[in-house]
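ok new one. same drill as before - C-alpha cells go in, u give me an amino acid for every spot. 356 of them this time. try not to just spam alanines like last time pls lmao
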C-alpha cells in the first residue's frame, strides 16, 4: 500500500518538483512555509492542474501516467478546503445524503450513520449551513468528503480559518479518523502543533521540493532539517495512560522505557496518547538528580549534536528506548559537559504536554 507521486509543474517564479513514495494509510502531513507548494501539490493530485506532468499511483491505481490523466471526477478523492463549501439550500442531512448518493452502492465504504457518528453530527442534521459554527461546518465538510468513499482524502489546512476553541473542539474527531477510516489522508498544515497532534508521517516541502519525509518523530528530531531549530521544536513520543492523579491533575503515562507525569485532564487507563516534549524543556544531567522540581527524568544517550541557528545554543538529538528526543541547550553547557555521540545522560523533562 503506497502512494507514488512524481509531479512537475512550472509556473513563473515557482516549480513544483516532487518525486516520492508515501504511505498508503494513516495521516501524512505536508508541512512547509507559505509558498512552499503544499496546496499546489494537492491541486495536482486532484487533477486541478492540467499542466502538471508526471505520474500519480494511488494504492496501485494510476490517476496519471505521463500524458494520460484522469479528470477530477474520475479520481476517487475527497477534498476538504480551508473553508467548508456546503450546499446552503440543503440541511446537514441533505448535504451528507447528496455525497452518499453519488457513489454507486457497490463502491460505498462508509455508511451515513458512521460518518454522522464519527464526526458527532447527530444533533445537527436538521440545521442549514448558516445555522452552524465554523467548526461544525468543517465537521460536516469532512463527513461529506468521507461519504464520497474516496481512495484518498486531501485536507488543505482545514482548521486554519477556525478560532482556537473551535480547533480544540474538532481535533479529537480528526485524531480518531485514521483508526475509523481505511484511507490515506494527506493533510496540509503550516502549524507544527497541529502536525504533532495528527500526523503519523511528515513530508517537508521547501520551494516546491521535498526536503525529507519520514515517521513523525524521526522527522521532528532530525538535526539536518529546519524543524529541529524551530522555536516550537519538540519530540512526540507514543505512550499509554496508566492512571490519573485527581489531586494534582497529573496523568501518569508509560512510554517504552519509563513513565512520565503530564499535566492534563483525566483520560481512561489504557488510552494511547502522544506526549510532546519541547526541545527547550529538556535539561541534561550527567547523573540522576534529587531534590529538583521536575517530576520526570529519563535515561538517554546522545545520538548527535549540531549548532543551532542561534549561536548561543546547541541542538542535541538523544535516544530514549529507541525514541529520538531533542534538547536545546546552551553551547557553553554542551562544551562543559563534553557531550558527544554515545554520552549517556539523564534528561530532565521540565514539562511535557499531551499532543493527543
Ligand atoms: N494560480 C497560480 N498561478 C501562479 N502562481 C501560483 C498560483 N497559485 C499559487 N502560485 C504560486 O505557487 C507557489 C506555491 O503556492 P502554494 O499555494 O502551493 O503554496 P503553499 O505552500 O500551499 O502556501 P500557503 O501555506 O500560503 O497556502 C507560490 O509561489 C505561489 O505564489
Amino acid at each position: 500500500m503506497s502512494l507514488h507521486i512524481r509531479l512537475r509543474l512550472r509556473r513563473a517564479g515557482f516549480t513544483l518538483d516532487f518525486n516520492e513514495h508515501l504511505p498508503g494509510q494513516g495521516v501524512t502531513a505536508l508541512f512547509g512555509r507559505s509558498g512552499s507548494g503544499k496546496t499546489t501539490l494537492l491541486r495536482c493530485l486532484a487533477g486541478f492542474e492540467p499542466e502538471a506532468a508526471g505520474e500519480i499511483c494511488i494504492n496501485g491505481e494510476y490517476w496519471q501516467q505521463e500524458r494520460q490523466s484522469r479528470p477530477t471526477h474520475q479520481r476517487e478523492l475527497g477534498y476538504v478546503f480551508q473553508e467548508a463549501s456546503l450546499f446552503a439550500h440543503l440541511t446537514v442531512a441533505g448535504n451528507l445524503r447528496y455525497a452518499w448518493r453519488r457513489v454507486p452502492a457497490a463502491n460505498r465504504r462508509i455508511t451515513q450513520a458512521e460518518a454522522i457518528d464519527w464526526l458527532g453530527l447527530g444533533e445537527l442534521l436538521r440545521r442549514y449551513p448558516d445555522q452552524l459554527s465554523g467548526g461544525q461546518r468543517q465537521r460536516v465538510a469532512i463527513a461529506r468528503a468521507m461519504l464520497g468513499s474516496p481512495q484518498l482524502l486531501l485536507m488543505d489546512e482545514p482548521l486554519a480559518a477556525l478560532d482556537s476553541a473551535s480547533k480544540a473542539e474538532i481535533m479529537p474527531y480528526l485524531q480518531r479518523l485514521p483508526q475509523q477510516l481505511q484511507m490515506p489522508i494527506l493533510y496540509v498544515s503550516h502549524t507544527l502543533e497541529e502536525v504533532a497532534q495528527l500526523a503519523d508521517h511528515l513530508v517537508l516541502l521547501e520551494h516546491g521540493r521535498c526536503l525529507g519525509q519520514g515517521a513523525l518523530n524521526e522527522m521532528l528530531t532530525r538535526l539536518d532539517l529546519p524543524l529541529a531549530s524551530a522555536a516550537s521544536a519538540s519530540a512526540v513520543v507514543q505512550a499509554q495512560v496508566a492512571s490519573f492523579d485527581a489531586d494534582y491533575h497529573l496523568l501518569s503515562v508509560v512510554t517504552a522505557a519509563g513513565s512520565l507525569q503530564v499535566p492534563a485532564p483525566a483520560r481512561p487507563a489504557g488510552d494511547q496518547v502522544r506526549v510532546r516534549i519541547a526541545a527547550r524543556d529538556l535539561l541534561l544531567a550527567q547523573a540522576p538528580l534529587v531534590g529538583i522540581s521536575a517530576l520526570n527524568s529519563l535515561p538517554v544517550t546522545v545520538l548527535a549534536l549540531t549548532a543551532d541557528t542561534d549561536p548561543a545554543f546547541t541542538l542535541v538529538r538523544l535516544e530514549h528506548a529507541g525514541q529520538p528526543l531533542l534538547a536545546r541547550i546552551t553551547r557553553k553547557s554542551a562544551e562543559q559537559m563534553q557531550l558527544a555521540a554515545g554520552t549517556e545522560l539523564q534528561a530532565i523533562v521540565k514539562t511535557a504536554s499531551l499532543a493527543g
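The two ends are 26 Å apart (CA to CA). and btw The chain has two domains: 2-221, 234-353.
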